[in-house]
Amino acid sequence: MKIHISILSSDPKVTHGAPSSPSSFSFDARVLELGKIRTKERQKRSEKRRETKKRRRREKKSARLLLV
């Protein structure tokens, strides 16, 4: 399945400064799906990182309490 996108702006910021490229382009929908999967994986990783940070902080606090 192909997806076709048209950009209705001549602003170089929107078209990423590529004057040679037309203002419309198409790509495969599988690329989009891959992007979604990657985003989900990234979210999972960052969530894991947050959890570990929280756990370490908790462990530090309890260790500090034990020392006192």
TrEMBL record:
Residues 41-68 have a biased composition (Basic residues). Residues 1-68 are annotated as: Disordered. Residues 30-40 have a biased composition (Basic and acidic residues). This is Uncharacterized protein. It comes from Cystoisospora suis.
